[in-house]
Amino acid sequence: MGDTAGQQFIKFDAIRLAKYQKAGYRIVGQKKHTGVEICRWTKSRMVGERNCYKATYGIKSHRCVQMTPTLDFCNFSCSWCWRSFGKDRFKSENKWDSPQEIVDASIEAQRKLLNGFGGNKKTSKQVLQEAMEPSHFAISLDGEPTLYPNIVELIKEIKDRGMTAFLVTNGTSPHRLKEMLDKNIVPTNLYVSVYGPDEETFAKGTNAFVNGLWPKVMESLCLFPKFNKLGCRTVFRITCVKGLTMQKPELYAEMIKKSKPTFFELKGYAWLGESRDRLKIDAVPQMRELEEFGQEIASRTGYIIKARDHVSRVVVAVRDETTWKWNINKIKEQDRTFAEVSAKA
Length: 345
What we know:
This protein has one domain (24-344): Alpha-Beta Barrel (TIM Barrel), CATH 3.20.20.
């Protein structure tokens, strides 16, 4: 007699989790829907080398927890994603750990993952000590985090502990963003990833499992000014895939002028994982091409390019010089908060 549906799910779940663990993820929590991974820039800073491009926002990579509360749970199956391509990524048992459990388990996993640097001659005692007390959560590792029903409370839990919270969303859950505004609980940075200059390109690249998501992304972008007023950095983010999303800069410019984000970012597609089965390597843009595309958008919006990272292939532009000064002051405020938290620890 064949397996029951429940047994089939358990088998699939075990295979799925093993795949992520092989990729370097630490899966945490009782319900196993949260993942933590040490990124290359955390490892770099641990041995005294360079920081992530997010230094633009005051982030020190050795104190950054890269995580997701929605491991392998997403309403998109983007052609440029390194993960598996299929509808299984939009399944959920609707059993969730609490925000407190997620933060506690993520910090514990981060400490265990970095503990080995204690024996590295290139890692100073001060850096290791600081790394054991994270100051930042990047909610961006995998899946779509706004599908976690308690995402607002998760952001509150992180910020209540004196840490910054960067939320990267595909913008398809504007009701979650409205909940943040209603409760006056906003992330430090809110990124909305816009996967195309128009609905047709968006649909072709994202392979969404439900229809009608483009208008929801536009609705999310329209909320940027309200987040701006609450001191949240808002970021219009474009994943640049040559031959697909990296076209029609004038349409991106129109969306940016309408939504008024604090920043816009371009991130070059990386030819990794299973995306190599769907896209050719010539879909990867060169840094020169990213800069030219970014400059085209900047010239149409009045934004100013302030940062470039050739290794990560990122271009960052800010609305104006006044906003840039505000960002620098916000970084100083963050540093004071981190110092106060460390003093109490």
